[in-house]
Amino acid sequence: MNMQAPPIVNETPGGVDVQGVAKNQKIVIWIILVRLLLIVGGVAVAMMLGGGGQGSQASLGAMVLAMRLVQLVTFVLSIVFIVLLMTAMRTQVLWRVLAAIGLIIPLVGLIILLVVNGKATALLRANGYTVGLMGART
After folding, report:
1. N or C: which end of the chain has fewer CB within 10 A?
2. Could you write out the DSSP letters of every residue in 34-50?
3. What contacts 41, CB < 8 A, 6 or more positions away?
4. How far apart are CA 30 and CA 27, in angstroms?
């Protein structure tokens, strides 16, 4: 008699891709962290520019340009991975589209990322995962 191990199932009975949620949630958490750091960095650069800081205008200009580039990359990645996370969670298409559009607005986008991350955390915990500060432990 040939005894085989049961196949590994990555989906719950409701169709939620739990492994996909865990993987995409980790990336979304990193995106949230980068967006928060960009906010703090933007405030620091604004203080240097407004307060007649010690740095030269050229170096501050380069810093602003670099921050804008990181913001652009983070913006694109946030749209991609929030849609992937919401797809793995089997969220309705309308909510995915609204979330992607809402990410355009800076503070609203951060709130959307935090809310969807919270829902992903609740879903992972309901499926037996241990979820820490940087996502699910797999």
Report:
1. N
2. HHHHHHHHHHHHHHHHH
3. 67
4. 5
